[in-house]
Structures are given as C-alpha cells and as structure tokens.
Amino acid sequence: MKVVAGGVEVADPAGAAAAAVVAGERAAKRRRVAAEPAPAGVRRNGGGVGRRERRRRVQADAAAVQRLFQACRDVFRGAGTVPKPDEVHMLRAMLDRMKPEDVGLSPDLKFFRNRDAAQGTPTITHTTIYKCPNFSMVILFLPRNAVIPLHNHPGMTVFSKLLLGSMHIKSYDWVDPDSDSSSVSSSSSSDDEQLRLAKLVVDDDFTAPCDTSVLYPTTGGNMHRFTAITPCAIIDILGPPYSIEEDRDCTYYTDIPYTLHSTADNPSDLNNIEQDHGCLAWLKEIDMPRELKMCSVHYGGPPISDK
C-alpha cells in the first residue's frame, strides 16, 4: 500500500499507533464516545475544571464522513484541475466542523494520552478512508516527536485538518514555480548539489481544534514538514493523490539557510522577496530518509458508500 506522505510501499504495523486505531474501531461502534475537553498532552489554561465537565460526552456525526466524501467527489475533477474558490470554502468549512469522534477517534484513546516520547524513531501510521484516481481521504497518526520530513505535493491541492494533538508545521513555496531560474549549484561536497530557492510560508505550532489548512500546486506551502509535539491525528484530502504512473511521485528535501548560498549572481529582485516574506531558503532534493518509519492500518471509523 502506498504511504500518503511519501509514496512508498509499507507493511501492516504493530505497536502503539496500530493499537490506537484498533481501539478507534471499538469506539466507532458506540454512538456516543467519551471525550475530554482538551486534546491529550495539551495543558488547559486556568485549571479548575470540574469532573462532570471533564466527563461530558460528545455526540459523533456518523454522516459527516459521508457528506465529506460526496463533496470531494463533486469538487475534485482529476489531474490538472484545482477546486474553485467557492468549492475550497465549502470543503474547508466541512472539515472545520469535523470532530475526532466523526471518524471513530477519541482523546480518551491511550495513544493520544501518552505523554512519553517513543524509544528510537517513532513510527507514523496512516489509514485510508477512501481512494480513487481523483482524490484520496486519509488519516495520519503521529506519535510524540514523530516527523514527516519536508516533502512536496506535485500538481495537487491538499486539505489538512488537525483533529487531535499539537504539531509544528513548516512549509515553503518555490520563489519561481515555473522555472529553475532561481537555482544555484553548490560545490560544498565532492558532487555538485542543485539548490532551488524557496520562500517560507508557515513556521508555527498548531493545536486542535484549529482551522483547516489548504495548499495548492504552486502556493499555500506546497512543500511542508510535520513535527508532532504531542500525539496527533490529521485528516488529509489530496486531489489528485500521489501517483508514480502519472508523474506525481513524492520528493523529499532538506532546507538550507539562504545566507549560506546567497551570491551577487542571484536575481536582483531577491532582496524585495526577502523583505516581503521574511525568510528565504534553498531546498535540496534528497532521497527518502532512511529513518522514516511509516505503516498502514485498516480504517475502522464510520463507513462510506460510493454509490
């Protein structure tokens, strides 16, 4: 099965993330699931919350995923197309309203309550809700300190909704998305390294519940990195999904400070770009990091019908 963030083949997992999803399957069988007022690992301001408030029950909307699927089927029209502004607004609003319980998750699951850092490199788990040539709907589970390295989304529009937890997101767009005119060659190693200029779009922490983010083929932070501050769950909609056959494979990058390779030969308008966006960086294409551990599990939330 292809990993959504990286386009690699994976095997079924074991461990805490898988156990969390299995537990999610049990939770999905209940029409009402317990939920604490704040995501696991996120400290509440003010304290003093009563026990009755902490134990309030949240009603899941079993039809939310079905409605989301139907909207995606209408909005995504295949490779080379981008949703219209009103369609983006509609999907964004639907995702903004979605709760963890709508996909069979709960902050009470042990996975999201675990405050201890995993030993070694944490394994990232994903589950596919639905996939077709035009779009895919997936959920990513990141243990604390897990990292999805900086990677791109070629020709894709991606909606990301943080359902549970806290994470740091850093994203870039190419300064010149239509050409390599902003590239330089570095001789810092025995082999020349091709670097391409990018501008920082996002570099911040996010805690659920928060607004849905949207990236486009050339704007909105098409290259991004996720770092889990606490155990996290994210629902991603990718239109169209990764496809090696259709030249939408995932590419990984490392970012290098702009000043390390800034020269007088660079385009004359880079100073204005730097003032406008606050930060520039050179991105260098790299192989998929060996330390990246990703695996897949069966989706156990509310089912959807594609009829």
From TrEMBL:
Residues 33-55 are annotated as: Disordered. Its EC number is 1.13.11.20. This is cysteine dioxygenase. It comes from Urochloa decumbens. Keywords: Iron, Metal-binding, Oxidoreductase. Its cofactor is Fe(2+). Transmembrane segments: none annotated. One of its GO terms (biological process) is detection of hypoxia. It is an enzyme of class 1 (oxidoreductase). It comes from the Eukaryota. Pfam families: PCO_ADO (PF07847). GO terms for molecular function: cysteine dioxygenase activity; metal ion binding. It catalyses: L-cysteine + O2 = 3-sulfino-L-alanine + H(+). Belongs to the cysteine dioxygenase family.
